[in-house]
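To fix ideas, we give here one paired sequence and structure record:
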Amino acid sequence: MDGVLVIDKPAGITSHDVVARARHILHERRIGHTGTLDPFATGVLVILLGKATRLAQFLSGVDKEYEAIIRFGYATDTGDRTGTPIPEREDAKNRLGKWTEQEIEKALRSLEGWIDQTPPMYSAKKVEGKKLYELARRGEMVEREPIRVCIYEFEAIKPNGQLIKDNLDGTFDFHARVSCSSGTYIRTLAEDLGKRLYVGAHLAELRRTRVGDLRIERAITLDQLKVHFAEESLGTVLLPPGAAISRLRFVHLSGEDVRRATNGREVRIEQAEWADGEDVRMFDTGRQLIAIGRYDAAAKSLHPRVVLAGEGEAEK
């Protein structure tokens, strides 16, 4: 059982819980995911099975896309709806719901491109070997180095043509779509949007709709996974290992080159337009992904880093 599953993670459980349930359903020991979602979040969680688990390293830095509901009216200590509310300032209360569309658009544009984000205290990022959320739960605050991320698109979604929804409780909801680089904290983005509009804000809902080229339209629920396994129709939803890394360029090999690659030995490539150090998918003539190689421009060769087929099944 080697391949990729796109799971639609439900709210209320961790990404680790999803993996554990999938392992139980499929009776598969070699299984893992490629990037966590907070327990309250839903959407695309990429699950790797069997030999495909060796490809996780190539998915750690792919772009992602989200749909979010940002709630204006107060911030929280976690940056999302699970945290303790921080009372809104009186001057900020007077601004709530009074923004023009141009003001909101200007605030969105100011957060696009390369920006610095300070990781939230309630996050899994480690500082000196300790997870930040563990420190936060003990009431400890530590200095965190900003990280550089890229927000490719930050735009409004207007349900029923409505830009801002008045919740009639002193809060207002703003629906947004975010396309961003790996490592972006959408909670921090929500807080920063509130700061641009001079009010408190937090992330009320989050749904991941894309990881790399794997979109929510391909996702199945855990209940659907259970049905597919019981009906022996898993092949209709299990994607080939290469689907997870389709953005990498590729080469087709034949004969002796296939044998060399499957044994973890370098393959000469006389003419290539790849950059030095670029990762390249290596297929055989039957279009089976046999390895991921790293290109050495000086030697004009591909060095297999991960071997998926043949005698050299161990990672190289």
